[in-house]
Structures are given as structure tokens and as C-alpha cells.
Amino acid sequence: MVPIADPAVKQRIHQTYQIGYLKDVVLPRVLDDQTFAALSSLMLFYNHDVLTSLQAGVYMGMVVVCVLTMCLGVYLYVYVYMRVRLCL
């Protein structure tokens, strides 16, 4: 495991996880299509920010694992969030 020292990256990961939780668990029945798409787009941009930040730092191995995780159809924010939570 690689600890993430940058508080901005940690905050972005937490925000992405929280948005995903709201979108998938708390509000799925009351969201209209436009709001669902907006939240999905926001999560995509947040995931991009996290990957870019990790790629710029010393976390290149973790980025490769995250990209492979995305290719397998597993949500990136869950994987990164759980890995970060275990490092804290």
C-alpha cells in the first residue's frame, strides 16, 4: 500500500466516494436522468483529477492498478477510497 500524503488528493477521493454513495445508494429512486448524468460526469472528472495527481507524484504503480480496475468495470473511487482508508 502507498500512503497518500497530499490532502487535496485525499479530499478529492473522499468527495468522489461520497457522491457515488449518494448516487448509487441514497438517491437512486428520486434522481432524474439529468441529475444522474451530472453526478456521473462529476465523478468522472474527479476520478480524472485523482489519476492525474497520482500520476504526477510517486504513485505510478497505484495508477496502473487503478486504470486496470476501471477496465475491469469496477468503480475506481471504491478501490482507491478503500486503499486509502486502509493506509490512514
Tell me which oligomeric state these chains represent. Answer: single chain
What structural class is derived from the secondary structure elements? mainly alpha
* Topology as a string of helices (H) and strands (E): HHHH
Number of DSSP strand runs: 0
Shape descriptor: elongated
Uncertain regions spanning at least 5 consecutive residues: none
Give the termini separation: 11 Å
Largest sheet: none
Question: How large is the radius of gyration?
Answer: 13 Å
Counting H and I runs of at least 4 residues, what is the number of helices?
4
Name the average pLDDT.
75
Give the amount of beta strand, in percent.
under 5%
Helical amount: over 70%
Describe this structure in words.
The chain is an all-alpha fold and 88 residues long. The chain has one domain. Helices cover 77% and strands 0% of the residues. The N and C termini lie close together (11 Å).
What secondary-structure arrangement, pairings included, does this model have?
Elements: H1 7-26, H2 33-56, H3 60-71, H4 76-87
